[in-house]
Amino acid sequence: MSHIDNIRDQLERKDYQSLWCTPRLEHLWRTLKHSATSYQRLEKEHKDVSTHFEELFKLLMAQEHKVKSPINAQMSTIQQLINDITDEIMFVYSTRNMTPYTNDHLNKNDECKIEQLSTLIESISKCDSIEQFVDINNNNKTSVARDDWDGDNDESLPPHETQ
Question: Pick from 148, 131, 138: which is nearest to 100 by CA?
């Protein structure tokens, strides 16, 4: 009996265990099962790592909030103090010079207030005296008033601005 006849005979008897390809198929199946199990294990490990770092991130965010809260409270208190002192200084100088006083910053939105506070703090830091600070801030208010005015020449400015 030839080799081909032997294979044909085993196939007719459905004796698949005796065929040369059966051990190879079994090996492939075991490798496939092992690969699938390994992949599932790695997939779970991947998810666990992501979950772990997500939890760490949440903890860090909570810790950041916890640390920043007293800083934010102090900043808010100091911001209010700076605004109050600046208003009082400008009021006293306006009263002394008999000029109108307005505290326009109270009507601004939060974003504008933060921008103005940054400009105000920079101005305070650069000034060497209270007089210099008042002059700079009065000039800033004048330039803002001019920017808001609709006229094209000096005649269209309010009377106290044409000097």
Answer: 138
Task: Tell me the pTM.
Answer: 0.55
**CA–CA gap between residue 81 and residue 91 (Å, rounded):** 15
Q: Side chain identity at 51, as an amino acid letter?
A: T
CB atoms within 10 A of CB 140: 14
Nearest Cα residue to 142 out of 122, 125, 162, 124: 162
End-to-end CA distance of the chain: 124
Instruction: Please give the structure tokens belonging to residue 50.
Output: 């992501």
- pLDDT tens, position by position, 11-50: 676 666 666 677 778 889 999 999 999 999 999 999 999 9
